[in-house]
Write a structure and sequence with these properties.
By secondary structure, the chain is an alpha+beta fold. The protein has one domain: Gcn5-related N-acetyltransferase (GNAT) (Aminopeptidase). Helix content is 34%, strand content 32%. The chain is built from 6 helices and 8 strands, in the order ββαααβββαβαββα. An 8-stranded mixed β-sheet has the order 1-2-3-4-5-6-8-7, sandwiched between helices. Helix 4 packs across helix 5. Coenzyme A binds next to strand 5, helix 4 and helix 5. The site of coenzyme A has 21 residues, from strand 5, helix 4 and helix 5.
Length: 196
């Protein structure tokens, strides 16, 4: 099983322990977590959440199996500079349906990395995992997140009222989806040609 995918000067690699301090620094930031249902996190909370995920991914890869969880670190290929992370998490009882997620570090915003991450997850879900559907969500008002999904072809699927409560404020949840019926074989072929 491959561990890294390159696209221009971006590399997506299955998350390892070596990535944890960069991830913890990012998720400790107020602005990064403004629209997330969690955080900002203390370092120990981030480590407690990610360590079992990373161990499970590492065990699967060692056995040459496809992991159940797909958590990737995004870095600049040449410099190794941390950009962020993205993930595809299986949705229970719906085999082949994955929830997407990504966080880009605030030093890297508005450079196209969020859109690139969404496109990578689309490629990975449909071409590597043979998904039938990917599901996305964001808090209402998270314009950057909404735009990255729409640009990748996701369709809006509705709005759930008062879905998250954070810091005493209610947030609606916006839903998005992309199914194999929405994405043509030509588009998938273009995506496949982008990653090596
Ligand atoms: C949301 C997020 C992923 C966007 O990443 P990014 O790398 O800045 O996105 P891109 O550079 O690909 O921008 C995509 C589009 O969104 C727009 N955009 C990005 N951030 C924006 C913001 N805060 N407000 C309005 N528009 C924004 C960009 O201008 C671009 O628009 P365009 O295509 O019309 O030019 C990033 O801000 C982030 O990680 N935020 C914190 C975590 C988070 O909210 N993750 C999503 C959880 S659902």
């Amino acid at each position: 099983m491959k561990r890294k995918w390159n696209c221009g000067n971006i590399v997506y690699s299955y998350c390892t322990e070596a990535d944890l301090s960069d991830i913890a620094s990012m998720l400790a930031k107020q602005n990064v977590c403004e629209y997330l249902f969690f955080g900002p996190n203390k370092e120990e909370d981030t480590l407690a959440y990610f360590s079992p995920l990373i161990n499970s991914i590492s065990e699967s890869l060692k056995a040459n199996n496809i992991p159940d969880m797909h958590v990737f670190t995004i870095r600049e290929k040449d410099s190794g500079v941390f950009i962020g992370q993205c993930a595809l998490l299986p949705i229970e009882f719906t085999n082949g349906n994955y929830l997407i997620g990504y966080q880009i570090d605030d030093t890297q915003w508005r450079k196209g990395y969020g859109s690139a991450a969404c496109e990578f997850l689309t490629y990975f879900a449909f071409s590597v995992l043979s998904a039938f559907r990917i599901t996305g969500d964001c808090a209402e008002g998270n314009i950057g997140s909404e735009k990255t999904m729409i640009k990748a072809g996701f369709k809006p699927e509705g709005q759930q009222k008062r879905y998250w409560s954070k810091n005493g404020k209610w947030h609606d949840r916006l839903l998005f989806g992309l199914t194999t019926e929405d994405i043509s074989e030509e588009k998938l072929e273009i995506l496949r040609s982008k990653y090596d």
